[in-house]
Structures are given as structure tokens and as C-alpha cells.
## 1
Amino acid sequence: MSKYWIKQWAKLRQDEVIQIPKDYVVHSDFTTYVSEKEIKASFAQIQSLYINLYGDIAKYPEEFGMPMHEKEQYRVFSQQWRDVSVATYRPFILLYHLMICGDIENQGVLVSLNKYKNIPLHKKGGEKLFLYNPVKNVHILFKQLENYGFYFQGLKNYKLSTNDIYITYPDDFNILLVLKLMAEKARNINRIEDFLCCHFRLFQDDMQTAGYGYGADDTADRVKTESEKNFIYKMDEALMAKGMFRKPYGGVECHGLAYYNSQKSMDSKAPYSFRMVSRSFDIEHNVSETEKMLLLLRIRNVSKCLEYINGCPESVKEIFRYGNEGCVNRPCDKGVGYEFEGKDYWRCGCCAPAFSFKPNLVDIPHYIKLVELGEKK
């Protein structure tokens, strides 16, 4: 484990790059100047660029001008911890800004310096998004990006001058063209995060439409194994069949979906009953895990579930066979204490439901029943 947060965050961002499926849709809006075959070939190379660049930041963060905050000095959820999580995106935020401020000219992209310097902050949900401008240490990033095949004219010692910027990618102009199409689409549909994780679904609808990311696919696309994807779709299907309401619910360290018993509960930000997340909240250890997805259950009263649990398979019983030390507020009204198989357990519930674990597909009916029985105190 590294002593610096930046190395951990960069590994996580590398892991968040979306896998490209064997087949995916490319809308005709993207094939005006380049064929679908060429788009897919270039996109595969772009994905490799993302993986390599995030990986190199993890190895050599100081060479990218990244903040070197030590884990021992700054705790999880501190402002420095959050700042580092955003800093990992800097090279791709820079590329995004350049692409949306430029026009295709000959075999490159001519970027208007005036447009670049006056990019407004994007907003999402009334809050400022992290696509700040100017990007910090931009001169370091320009220099580093040349190591990945980009060339920049109009700079002075890799810093902005009074000239417009002309970008080329001599090895393959289509790389620039596809990257620009991705940036334009992400801007049009306000899905900048999808540009930062190299999402293949940017291509599936026309340049003004986002027909994805509102249901189970938003989380399923972000896990790595078919078993995890299958669970997400099946669990979502079962909960929606019960008439539940869902919405995206994630954070800087994961993506997820939360499920509520009513529209009113969902709109009022009341506690959700179920939640699926693409990874554990423990960013220090879960990057190396093959399966990271977690299911969270809102069970407040285990005593109401005990009779049912006793008839469940071992995989369900195992959920209740461990606890944790809790938080500094223990005992508190959000934690869950219970006795099971002659032992006492305590589960902290301050930051999330007390029960979170890696689920099994065959146990979906049991998970739903447990929440039905124990959700209310």
C-alpha cells in the first residue's frame, strides 16, 4: 500500500474505465466522417490510453503534478482526500476542454484560446461539477500527454501563450476525431463523467440524446464480471416488479442504485430500502478484488427476521454471523444490535445500512423478504 492517496485514487480510476463489450451500438451521427469499424478500432485504442494514463499516474504521480497528500495526515472523507479523488481526472478534463473548444482542421484540432480560457463551470443538480477551469499544472500535463502520442503547437514551454492551440495525433488522426466526438456528445447530454471513464454508451444514441444510465445498466456497466452484471439486472427486475422506485445513488468512490417503497420517500430523500453499489467503499483494498459489487439491506430489527433466517440457506445465515466495532458514537440509534446463534453482534449504521455484503443470485428472494420483515424497528 502506498502512503499517498493519489496512488490509490489513480488505481481506482484506472479500474473504473468501462469495459468494452464484444458488440455495442454506434449511432449514425458518429459515422459522418469515419466508419463504424474505424470508430470501434480507434475507441479500443483510446480505452488503452485511459488505462495506461491512469496507471502511470498511480506509479509516478509527481511527474503529473498531482497533490501528494499522505494517508496518515489526511483521513478518509477529508477535503484533501476528496481533492485528490478529483485531481486524478486532470489529464482527461484537459483533453475534454480542448476538444469542446476546438474544430477539426486538416488532420488536427484547432482550439480557440479564447473559448478555452472562458469555459463556464458545468453544473449538475444545482451544484458545481468538478470540471474546473483552468486545470492545475496544465504545463506539466501538456508535456506528459506528448508521451502518449499528442502534439501541441501554439504553446510556450508547454504553457498557454497568446496563440490558439493546434493538436495533432500523428499515429492516427481518427484517435483525435473519435475523442472529439466523445467530448461533444458528453457535453451535449451533460454526462461528462462518461467521458472521464471512457464509456462505450456515448456512441449508442444520437449526438443530443442519452438513452442510458437511468436504470440497472448504470451500475451493471461498471462491474467486471458477468455474475455481478447478472445479479444487478435480476435484483433490479425483482425490486421493480414489486413496485419499488429507484434512482442513481453513488459517490466519489462508487456508482449505485437505491430503491424506495414510494415516490414520496425517494423525492424526500428518506432512507432507501435496498441499494446496489459497483464497489466497496474501502478504496484502499478493493481495487485488487475481482468482484467488488455490494448489496445493502435496510434491516433495523433483526429479531423480527430470526425465525425466517433459521430456515434460510447457509449463505444467508452467514450475513448475520459477523459484526463490527461500530463508530465513535456507539451505542447510537442508527446501529443494529442483535443476538444470533447464541452470540451478540453489533453493526454500525451511521453512514450506510448496517448490512452490506457480496450477494448471491439464488438468494434474491431471501434478501427481499428480510427487508420486508426487519425494515421497521
Note: The first strand starts at residue 102 and ends at 105.
## 2
Amino acid sequence: MTTPHLKVMISSTARDLPDHREEVKDACLRQSMFPVMMEHLPASDAEAIAVSLRMVDEADLYLGIFAHRYGYVPQGHPISVTEMEYNRAVERKIPRLIFVMHDDHPITAKDVEKGAGAAKLETFKQRVQTENIIQLFRLALPTYGDMSSTACRSIAIAISPSSTTSAPFPSHPNPTSPTPTPCCRPTG
């Protein structure tokens, strides 16, 4: 078994996407990458923000999963922790893999943000989709595993030295699978 070489920050809202986060974590591990995730936030907002941003600072690659929730906005801050993490990845200029939930993906009402958060989410998603090549996902994970295969292909693309994506991804010394055909669609 190989030792993980690259650290991947997995960023998303947690309440609505726990299965997706788990699938992406597993896909990272299958590619010999170390997933970095904030599954249990510290007690205070300030501490949670600092820990989240430090995780992005230590990551080699940022992987964002965006659906229909904007996420937690700490008191006194204008944006969510999820958007703060994305902003830090942009500031650091590290490679970013972005997954956006397709409109046909099955969801429940509790998974959809309403009110001011919905407006912030729409603005944030438009920005993310303009600044990155994205991947859409639409099938239910427990039945089909679409996110897992998509994440695995994308992660393999990201670590491949012969990658054809537009972002400058780091090379991986021992890729565990052949370079797949990119399945990204440009937006913006």
C-alpha cells in the first residue's frame, strides 16, 4: 500500500452532503491522496474558521462540492465558512476541482437553502462556475455511486502529469490509474 502524497482539502456544506463527502474521501484514498476534512468543527466560530483556513493552507489541492445550501455564516462575518475556504484556495493559487450538483440530482426540501442564504449561494455558485472548470453530478450516491466515479476520474486527471485540463495541477509520482478522458465542461 502506498503512502498518500498529496493533501486534498474537501470543502462543502456538511449537513446536506455527508454521503458525497464520504465518497470523495474514499476516491481520494483510492488515488493515494490524503483527504483533509472538517467533520467536527471546534466549539467557537473563531477557532473553526482558523482551523478551516489552516487546512486549506496545508492542502496541495482544493476540492469543492456545491449543492443547494450556502453553509454556516459565523456571527460577524459576511460569508460562509465554505466560501472562506474557497477564497483561501484562490488566494493561494492552488489547483481547484469543483463539483456542482446538477438540477436533476434528487434532493429533499431540507437540503435547499432559503432566504438570504439562497441569494448568497446563487452569487457564490455563479462565481465558482465562472472561475473554474466544473463537473456536474446528478445521481443518488447510495444507488449509483456517480459522485465516486466522477471524483475518482477527476482526481486522477488532476494528479496525472499529462493532464489536459486548463488548471495547473501538481504531478503525482505514482499514479494508481491511467489518465482518463476529462469529463469537465467549461463554464462562464
Note: The two ends are 40 Å apart (CA to CA).
## 3
Amino acid sequence: MQINQKSDVALYQQIAEAFKAQILSGELKSGDYLPSVRALAADLKLSVVTTLKAYEQLTQEGLISSKAGKGYYVNEQDEEMIREQHIRIVEENLQKALDAAKIANVSDEEVFIILKTLMEV
């Protein structure tokens, strides 16, 4: 896992997003245990509070749970929920692209051409 100390994105958010991507891609599967909070903090050279905050965010999103004395593990994922998460990511990225296109005065037609070209690649 790569954490960018100079990023505008909070460290705990970077950790949560990295695990979330692994869960949604199927790299981490239902029942898989995540590294302990302390072990992850040591590996990333961050505070335990930062890693705990990332795990708490993933817990709130329903992606992971904790077992007393065992740590955090990946919850079983609902296929429809995973699809919705991916759609949300696509929407967020498309919105960023549309915002950039607007700033650059790119027409709707040009945006469609760009999108179609990218889809064909």
C-alpha cells in the first residue's frame, strides 16, 4: 500500500480508499483479515489513531467488521452494492472530467467523441 504524505487527501482516507479498492475488486474477499491496526501503522510509519480511523470508516461503510481479539475482517459483499459502488466511482470521475472540460471550453460533442474514443481503446 502506497501512502502519499504530500497529498491533499487525508492519510486515513488514503488507507480506507486503498482497502476499499481491494475489496471492491475482489482482491480482498469475504472473511479475509486485514492487518492489525498496530501492524499497519508500523508498516506505513503512521500513528495507530490514523489507521484506526481508516478502519472505522470502512466499518461505517459496511465493508469490514471487527471480532474481539481477532481484528478486522472483510464482510461478505452484496453484488448489487459492489455494482453501485463502482457506478458511484464512475460518476465521480466523469463529473471531474466534465468540470475540466467546462474550464477548457470543450464542447459536449467533443466530450462525447473523447468518451467514445476511450471506450473503444
Note: The longest helix spans residues 79-103.
